[in-house]
Specification:
129 residues; alpha+beta; two-stranded antiparallel ribbon; 8-stranded mixed β-sheet
């Protein structure tokens, strides 16, 4: 296996520091290495979409603010904990609509899809639950 720096350079994709709850989701095969005790792996919008299609919740920090895509009361929500934004996206089982809605969300005029795919700066922590 290549080291993390070589993988980053070879793929051109952004690597995220992640907190993984191994008893809830099997991601060990996606891990490239451990950095400072924190698992690090390659993460794109397509992978984010795959996890959402499985009903997984996502938490991340971008430009110093905490965001989440979660389900509550049979609905999916996009939240920014830092400024108390809470946007209802769709009903829980409507996963295709969810992915389309998330794709269209912009943070500071940059889509979440671009943030993940183009490894834009400031994306810091991600948890997949």
């Amino acid at each position: 296996m290549k080291d993390g720096k070589a993988l980053r350079e070879a793929s051109g994709l952004f690597y995220l520091k992640v907190k993984v709850i191994f008893d809830k989701i099997e991601l060990k095969d996606k891990l490239d290495f451990f950095e400072g005790g924190v698992a690090v792996w390659q993460f794109t919008f397509d992978e984010l979409a795959d996890y959402l299609m499985q009903g997984r919740e996502i938490e991340f920090r971008y430009e110093g603010k905490d965001y989440s895509i979660t389900n509550s009361h049979h609905e999916w929500h996009f939240c920014c904990d830092s400024d108390e934004t809470n946007i209802t996206l769709c009903a829980f089982p409507e996963f295709n609509i969810l992915v389309d809605q998330v794709r269209s969300i912009e943070i500071g005029e940059i889509s979440i899809e671009r943030i993940f795919n183009e490894h834009l700066g400031g994306l810091d922590v991600l948890a997949v639950l």
